[in-house]
Amino acid sequence: MGEGQIIQRFEGKTAIITGAGSGIGRATAIKLAQQGANVALFDLKDDRTMETENEINRMRKGAARAFDVDTSNTERVEKAVLETVELFGGIDIVFANAGINGVLSPIEDLKIEDWEKTINVNLNGTFLTIKYTIPHLKKNGGSVIITSSINGNRTFSSFGMAAYSTSKAGQVAFAKMAALELAKYKIRVNVICPGAIATNIDQSTQKTDQLKDIVIPMEFPEGRQPLANAPGHPDHVADLVTFLASNEAAHITGTEMFIDGAESLLC
Ligand code: NAD
What we know:
binds nicotinamide-adenine-dinucleotide; alpha/beta; 9 strands; globular; Rossmann fold
C-alpha cells in the first residue's frame, strides 16, 4: 500500500510497544506509526531500538521515542510509563510483547535462575507493563494486546521450553483476568499466539547440552506451516495487532487469537 493510501486510524493516539527494537515489536511500532500513532519504544536501548526510533522519526518527526527499559524491572517500567505520558500526553494502546526464549534445558537440569529469568521477562514484564499503564488507559479506555505463543497453549512439543511455555500460558490467563477486570473502563485486553515468525528470537535462545536427552522425534519438520510452508513474517502479526488496537475491534476483548498458518493444528 502506498503511503498516501494508509488510513490514519490512530491519529492522536499513543502506543507503548515493548520489545520494539526487533521482530514483531518493531514491525508493529512502524505500522502503528504509519497509521498516525505516537509510539513509545520500550526495549533494552541497543542499536536496534535506536534504529527503529530513527526509521519512524524519518517518516514522521517526533512520532517515536526509544526508552531504555528492561520490562522485568519495576522501577524502570513505572518511570518510562510516566515519561511517555509526559511526552505524548496519555496512553491509548499497549502492546506487551517483549520476550525471550531463554535457556532451553531438561527440567531436572534447569537452573532456578534461568527459570526465573524467562518468567521475569515474559510474565512479570507483561504484568508490570500493564499494571503501570492502567491508570492512564482508564482515562479514555484503550486496547491492550499481549504476545503469548502457540507454545504452552496449543503445542507442548518445543522440548526444553518448560519455562517459556509456562510464561506463555500464564499470559493467556492474565489477559482474561485483566479483560474482565478492566471492561468497565472500556479497556480491551486480547492476547495473540503466534507460531514461528522470522525474527531475531533465536538470539535469546540458549540450548543446553542435555537438551538432546529429552527430544522426541516429531512427525512434521520444525517450522512447517500448512498455509505458507514457511514461517510467518513480523508484518503478519503487526497487522493483527493494529486491528486489535483499532476501533474495528471495539467488541473484542478477553480473546486469544492464534496466528500460525495452522502450524499448531499439526502438533
Ligand atoms: P525478537 O528477539 O526479534 O524481539 C524481541 C525484542 O524484545 C528484542 O528487541 C529484545 O531486545 C526485547 N527484549 C528482550 N528482553 C527484554 C527485556 N527484559 N526488556 C525489554 N525488552 C526486551 O523476537 P520476536 O520474535 O519479535 O519476539 C516478540 C514476542 O513474540 C516474544 O514475546 C516472543 O515470545 C513472541 N513469539 C515469537 C515467536 C517467533 O517465532 N518469533 C513465536 C511466538 C511468540
